[in-house]
Amino acid sequence: MTDFTGEYFDRYHLIAPLGEGGMASVYKAYDTRLERDVAVKIIRTDMFIPAVLEKVMKRFEREAKSLAKLSHPNIVSIIDYGEHEGVPYLVMEYLPGGNLKDRMPGRPLPWQESFHLLLPVARALQFSHQQGIIHRDVKPSNILITLSGEPMLSDFGIARVLESEG
């Protein structure tokens, strides 16, 4: 995948890569308008043939709008979305505390610490389900940690917005 470090996506200056998955890359970026750090998730368009890409872009826009409505203290906030030279991106709050996977010591956590981390994540999942959005990829690397130690559910990238006719 292309390295976008140093580029500008609209008002977002991409500073450094934070991670990469099969469908997207995430960068630490600087919002030049609001003068703050953010995370920018860039969707890999090279994974799709042109005939499918248009449908993917429409679904991405629809899901970005749905995910932006998830206002919960333990869900990473969606700030903005856009497209840069045909590449869709999502802007989220930046959490410099790392993720749960990186904080796990290679052995089970004490139950008290596990409870402190998982109960807020369970509440976040309950809230997203009530909004008709299922995460479908809950794992330690998708649980970010704030500087104060609070867990934040992230990466709804493969979430499926449930159809209202259910």
Short synopsis of the structure:
The chain has three helices and ten strands. It is an alpha+beta fold and 166 residues long.
Describe the structure.
By secondary structure, the chain is of the alpha+beta class. Helix content is 26%, strand content 31%. The chain has 3 helices and 10 strands. It has helices spanning 50-68, 100-103, 111-130; strands at 8-9, 12-20, 24-31, 36-43, 78-84, 87-93, 133-134, 143-145, 151-153, 160-161. The strands form 3 sheets. It has a 6-stranded antiparallel sheet with strand order 1-2-3-4-6-5, with helices on one face. The longest helix is centred in the last third of the chain and has 20 residues, at 111-130. The radius of gyration is 16 Å and the shape is globular.
Any key phrases for this structure?
31% strand; six-stranded antiparallel β-sheet; 166 residues; single chain; alpha+beta; globular; disordered C terminus; 3 helices
Detail the topology: elements first, then pairings.
Elements: E1 8-9, E2 12-20, E3 24-31, E4 36-43, H1 50-68, E5 78-84, E6 87-93, H2 100-103, H3 111-130, E7 133-134, E8 143-145, E9 151-153, E10 160-161
Antiparallel strand pairs: 1-2, 2-3, 3-4, 4-6, 5-6, 7-10, 8-9
Given the structure, what is the number of helices?
3
Largest sheet: number of strands, sense, barrel closure = 6 strands, antiparallel
SS-derived structural category: alpha+beta
Overall geometry: globular
Quote the average pLDDT.
88
Q: Helix proportion of residues, in percent? A: 25-40%
What's the order of the H and E elements? EEEEHEEHHEEEE
Q: List low-pLDDT spans.
A: 161-166
Total count of strands: 10
* DSSP strand content: 25-35%
Q: Return Rg in Å.
A: 16 Å
> Cα distance, first to last residue?
37 Å
Instruction: Write out the strand line-up for the largest beta sheet, numbering strands in chain order.
Output: 1-2-3-4-6-5
